[in-house]
Design goal:
The structure holds two protein chains of two kinds. Chain A is mostly helical. Chain A has helices at residues 3-16, 21-35, 41-52, 61-83, 89-99, 103-131, 135-149, 155-172. Residues 1-12 and 192-196 of chain B have low confidence and may be disordered. Chain B has helices spanning 2-7, 20-31, 36-51, 57-69, 74-112, 114-117, 122-146, 154-168, 173-187.
């Protein structure tokens, strides 16, 4: 598979899966691991797991795939492949700008915004449910929230406090 | 009118412009957030709405909602939308570059360290520590973004219904957003000249 083919493959698969990290995995495995043998399954799963431990978007493990196959050029090509479809929002925004004065469209947008707030709350709770599986995680989050809401410090400091507390508790209390 | 349509893809409200370099910096900070898309949105809210007042919350949420219903990666779409809003086409490049850089650098580093790390417990320790910590930022941003509708109103009802549909019933996110919009189109449409 050439670099151009890899770029095109990741681009098409990304469009088909909304570029969601977990949904990208099966087609990547199917082609790169099972069909072409360009990667081991272990390597692909390691990259996917590693992407959960790094900052930013969860689909950026494709950059690791690209790097594994073609070095820096591969990493950049795969990054471009998952990011370029973002430009497809521009025609949507242009169309919306034309229709925005219509009362029905304004109502639609207001409903969309309200629903997105509910969605944010649901996604936050979903993330909490998945990640707060141990008492140390709950304790760390609690300390972070105390930092923000009782001590009135910025959320970024709350993150640092929670991460530090979580790490300390895990090292001091292994198995909890 | 024509100049507005050509120059402003989403200029339906007066826009505060930002230099492309500042857009890059904002998205670089967002790209350093843990917690995936939620973490990124939380940092963007803090940087764009709270610190710089470059957008009001309603506009921030509107662009976020539109990017969620677009059948492409939400964060990429968001970067293009906000980047375009603040700094035109150069802003889109700056936003995507800033957003991608931290993860790109991290993934290259971890790929190079594959041999040493693949059996290491550190790989599983880090998500267990940073994701719960990232929840602090995410919770704070969710509360800030929810405040405008936390009063008895049709908007709160739609938000509550959307929450239930996604969290309790597991409905498709894009479908829930579109349904919320459809309900809003019927129940929340404004008559001509009515104040918002």
């Amino acid at each position: 598979m050439s670099l151009v083919e890899l770029f095109a493959f990741v681009l098409v698969v990304g469009l088909a899966t909304f570029s969601e990290g977990a949904r990208l995995l099966p087609p990547l495995q199917g082609v790169l691991v099972d069909e072409r043998g360009l990667l081991d399954l272990d390597e692909l799963l390691y990259l996917y797991a590693a992407s959960q431990a790094v900052p930013g978007q969860n689909n950026m493990y494709v950059a690791g795939v690209g790097y594994q196959l073609y070095g820096l050029a591969g990493a950049l090509a795969c990054t471009l492949a998952v990011q370029l479809p973002g430009y497809l929002i521009l025609p949507l925004l242009r169309g919306y700008a034309w229709l925005e004065t219509c009362p029905t469209v304004r109502g639609f947008t207001r409903g969309l915004v309200a629903a997105s707030v509910g969605l944010l709350a649901a996604t936050t709770l979903g993330l909490a449910r998945r990640s707060l599986t141990e008492p140390v995680a709950v304790a760390a989050l609690g300390l972070g929230l105390v930092t923000v809401y009782l001590l009135r410090r910025p959320p970024s400091l709350g993150f640092v406090v929670a991460a530090g507390a979580g790490l300390a508790l895990r090292l001091l209390l292994p198995g909890r | 009118m024509k100049a507005d349509l050509v120059a402003g893809v989403a200029d339906f409200n007066p826009v505060r412009r930002l230099p492309a370099l500042e857009v890059f910096w904002i998205f670089l900070r967002a790209g350093c957030a843990f917690g995936g898309g939620l973490g990124i949105v939380s940092v963007l809210e803090d940087e764009i709405v709270t610190r710089r007042a470059a957008l009001d919350r309603a506009e921030f949420l509107r662009l976020y909602a539109l990017s969620r219903v677009t059948p492409i990666g939400t964060m990429s779409a968001l970067a293009v939308a906000y980047g375009r809003r603040f700094a035109g086409f150069p802003g889109t490049v700056a936003a995507l570059a800033g957003l991608s850089l931290p993860a790109l650098a991290s993934m290259i580093a971890l790929t190079l360290a594959y041999g040493a790390l693949r059996e290491s417990p550190l790989l599983h320790l880090v998500p267990g520590v940073v994701v719960p910590a990232a929840l602090v930022i995410v919770v704070a941003a969710t509360i800030r973004l929810s405040r405008p509708i936390l009063r008895l109103s049709p908007d709160l009802t739609i938000a509550a219904a959307a929450f239930g549909a996604v969290f309790l019933l597991g409905w498709n996110v894009a479908l829930v957003l579109l349904l919320g919009g459809a309900v809003g189109a019927v129940l929340l449409r404004e008559r001509q000249g009515q104040a918002r």
